[in-house]
């Protein structure tokens, strides 16, 4: 069980955050779009830290779980906490896939595929515009004004 509050944002919080999103962020996060391959801001990010949900700030992946999948999107083999990710069956575009959304706010992150490296064998293939990044030692974002859970470290790989 996670130490983070997974209660969804209020209607007012959702409106305020949505108003601050760029058009491409809205298209991906809220309309389940996909950014073009090989152009995302975090594809070649090699800094140590934590990737967070761009919409609500929930920690999603540690940089230590990131790997180069060669697909053109940031890829991770393990989430920060399994409770922070929700999987949904996706049958769009004539395919059967598993969509990945933020467990707190429901924002679209990307898809999960069973072709990743050990130890999990998973490839969480994400859109850079769905993510924020916090370098090691910096405080995690608190976009919903709930505070950081007691005992939760500053961003750490």
From TrEMBL:
Q: Has keyword Glycosyltransferase?
A: no
What are the recorded GO MF terms, alphabetically? Answer: peptide-methionine (R)-S-oxide reductase activity
Catalytic reaction annotation:
L-methionyl-[protein] + [thioredoxin]-disulfide + H2O = L-methionyl-(R)-S-oxide-[protein] + [thioredoxin]-dithiol
Q: Which superkingdom is the protein from?
A: Bacteria
Q: What is this enzyme's EC?
A: 1.8.4.12
Start and end residues of each MsrB domain: 14-136
Which EC class is the enzyme in? Answer: oxidoreductase
Alphabetized Pfam families for the sequence: SelR
- Write down the InterPro entries for this protein, in alphabetical order: Met_Sox_Rdtase_MsrB, Met_Sox_Rdtase_MsrB_dom, Mss4-like_sf
Which UniProt keywords are listed? Answer: Oxidoreductase
Q: What does the similarity note say?
A: Belongs to the MsrB Met sulfoxide reductase family.
Q: What's the protein name?
A: peptide-methionine (R)-S-oxide reductase
Q: Gene symbol?
A: msrB
């Amino acid at each position: 069980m996670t130490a983070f509050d997974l209660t969804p944002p209020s209607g007012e919080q959702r409106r305020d955050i949505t108003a601050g999103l760029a058009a491409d962020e809205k298209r991906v996060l809220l309309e389940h779009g996909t950014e073009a391959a090989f152009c995302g801001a975090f594809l070649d990010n090699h800094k140590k830290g934590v990737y967070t949900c761009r919409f609500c700030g929930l920690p999603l992946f540690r940089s230590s779980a990131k790997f180069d999948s060669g697909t053109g999107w940031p890829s991770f083999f393990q989430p920060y906490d399994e409770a922070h990710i929700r999987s949904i069956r996706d049958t769009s575009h004539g395919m059967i896939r598993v969509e990945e959304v933020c467990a707190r706010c429901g924002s679209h992150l990307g898809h999960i595929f069973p072709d990743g490296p050990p130890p999990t064998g998973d490839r969480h293939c994400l859109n850079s515009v769905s993510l924020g990044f916090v370098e090691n030692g910096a405080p995690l974002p608190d976009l919903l004004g709930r505070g950081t859970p007691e005992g939760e470290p500053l961003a750490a790989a």
